[in-house]
Amino acid sequence: MLDIKLIRQNPEKIQKAAKDKGVEVNLERILEIDSKVRGLESIVQKLREERNSLASGIKGKPTKEQIEKGRKVKENLEKEEKALLAVSEELTNLLFQIPNPAKNDVKIGKNDTENDVIETVGKPHRFDFTPKDHLELGQSLGIIDMQSASKVSGARFTYLRGDAVLLEFALVNFALETLMKEGFIPVIPPVLIKTGVMKGLGYMENGGDEDMFQLPKDDFVLIGTAEHALVAMHKDEFFNAKDLPKRYVGFSTAFRREAGSYGKDTRGILRVHQFDKVEMVSLVKEGEDDKEHEYLLSLEKKLFDALEIPYQVVKMCTGDLGFPAARKYDLEAWLPGQNKYREVTSVSTVTDYQSRRLNIKYQAEGEKKYVNILNGTGFAIGRTIIAILENYQNSNGSVNIPKVLQKYMGKSVIKKQN
Question: Residue 397 and residue 399: Cα distance in Å, rounded?
């Protein structure tokens, strides 16, 4: 959430920043509740001081007058503390409804149609035959089985089989090897996290909870990316400045309802309910997130450069930025089967938005500060497999394996499975 001092000092700026993201917030109500909180805090502090003064002034056995006065102070204190707790909770809930303002360099726009392509890398390959899409290729090769998955789990699930499985773990191993050389710590996180923790990450507001698979009976939410569990790993923790940056690479299964995407991308494995991801997370000192953001973007580009797949880098406008993000880039790979670029990775800075909500701090020069947090995709496995199948296909239906992955797979081509 945002620093309440920032809201007090710049209410119009915060109101506009929220509106730029398409979110309406009632700052007048928030400032009204904030004033009540401060008033009650003052009352509670005075009553505590009075209670302590009474206790320290008693010598020997207390008199009836002292006992009665102490009782009244205690009752008043309990009453005001209860009121303070209720109003503080209301303020916190209201603050949680304010999105993280976009950085100054982010373009103001309504939706993804106003995003900017800032770089194009590589040229789409020209085939001397009509290229197939990934599902036709995957089915003919016997490595993608959505028909069986639909019987078992319903729509938007799949079985990966044979060489698709080997291709997945080749991608995972390549990403881990690359990122560990950069100092990233590998982690396999839990895929179930507490609902309160997910709220702390800032993804459940503004309808975000509708895209999550939730288990209310157990108070759990299934993660939509390893980032959710990696960031929360340091909830209520305190770093020394010398221990930052802290960088992790997580591998996990992820789950999304794909709410609001009815009838969109229903063919194949582009938009499914369950998929695997390699995810990067960085915790850095205040003010170092801009540099780290460019660094994480360079790593995403490095991974796709190694696959030799054409892509473009897109910078999100405010309306397509998401609730906690202050700036975000997407990598969109060229998919011959669709004859268009499609998102395969993203990388965001959320500044201190999540660290304030999850209480993750560090100490620098005697001052306690909140860390800045960033997240970025290493590989979204399913979408990367799509990009490989479609870009490396041959006229006979086989698919060449990118050179950088051949050592992990022990072969150079995917042929029809028996």
Answer: 7
